[in-house]
Amino acid sequence: MDELNQLKKNQWFRNNDVAGIPGPKREIVGYGEKPPVVRWQNGAKVAINIVINYEEGSELTFAMGDGENDGMHELPFDVEGQRDLAKESMYEYGSRAGIWRLFRVFDKFDIPITVFGTAVALERNPAVAAKMLERGDDLVSHGYRWIDHYKYTREEEKQLIDLSMETFERLGFSPRGWYCREMSVNTRELLMEDGRFLYDSDYYGDDLPYWSYHNNEPHLVIPYSLAVNDCRYIMGTGFGSPDDFVDVAKRTVLQLLDDGDDCGRMMSIGLHPRVTGNPARAHGLAEFIAWAQEQDGVTFMRRDDIADSFVAQVPKPASAEERLNR
Predict the structure, then answer these.
(1) DSSP, residue by residue, 1-59
(2) Is residue 7 part of a domain?
(3) Residue 304 domain-assigned?
(4) Percent helix / strand / coil, the chain, rounded to 5
(5) How many domains, in total, are found in the chain?
(6) Which CATH number characterizes residue 119's domain?
């Protein structure tokens, strides 16, 4: 037994997390066998949330003094030590052409969407912000710029959150949700302390919203997904053509409609104007939307509306302190 206990002290033989490491506790168990039975608008079982990640103009570039050029682009190589004008133009395709093609698709099918938008990207292209307000799309804060938050100190990250919200409010938005690029161990705590956010989406571990606890206080999480996400067109193994995207998206809907229980679930579709804004990929997206609208039990919803619907059915639980005082 002493030998076994000694083995468990070794890092490679641990069966639990190390105490004192910063950040939230891991949430491995989840709902288990019995998730809450929720329904969405019009009694739908599946709520599809289409997300546009609008980052163009806020990515890392030599032009903005970052000393590097960002990734997620069509070419398989990088220019180092100087501006990469080819890559910059791919991002500009998203803000000049791709975003408007996607808006035309959504207008054609009269569906609401969510925009994960960075403050700088919307500030540099105010016509996109105006179109969002005209359509009534909800904005989830994607941060001030499209940058990794784990690279910054707690105080710097707090400043980034404040900067983003100042810009959004000036443009006419009041985001209630948050999704940054690579959150830090401080992000969720900072959002809860800020008080302006109903939820965050920096989580990929479920098909349903859930209440997380941090410092014994409940906080709403509306999960996101990279499974039906157009980054798979250009990163690693994934979509070779729009047919692949359509097939994965359709099969996701069909499984969620008949998932072996009576529980409703949500489906996130992640898009980028510089990627799905290209004609063939936009055509595939339109094909999927037309098909999904014909399916019973399926609806398209904004992320804010999914949050509100979930809270109405699964209300905010008491804090740990409130539970003890009952």
Answers:
(1) -HHHHHHHHSGGG-SSPPTT-SSPPP--STTTT-------GGG-SEEEEEEEEE-TTSS
(2) no
(3) yes
(4) 45, 15, 45
(5) 1
(6) 3.20.20.370
pLDDT at 324 over 80: no
pLDDT digits 0-9 by tens, 267-312: 999 999 999 999 999 999 999 999 999 999 999 999 999 999 999 9
Q: How far apart are CA 128 and CA 122, in angstroms?
A: 7
Amino acid at 265: R
Residue 309 lies in a domain: yes
Q: Which pLDDT tens digit goes with each residue over 40-93?
A: 999 999 999 999 999 999 999 999 999 999 988 887 788 989 999 999 999 999
Residue 39 and residue 306 in contact, taking contact as beta carbons nearer than 8 Å? no
pLDDT in tens, 226-241: 999 999 999 877 899 9
| Cβ contact 189:215 at 8 Å | yes
Residue at 144 is within a domain: yes
Instruction: Give the structural domain span for 212.
Output: 41-69+83-315
Q: For residue 210, name the pLDDT band (cuts at 50, 70, 90).
A: very high
CB 139 within 8 A of CB 65: no
d(CA 103, CA 52): 10
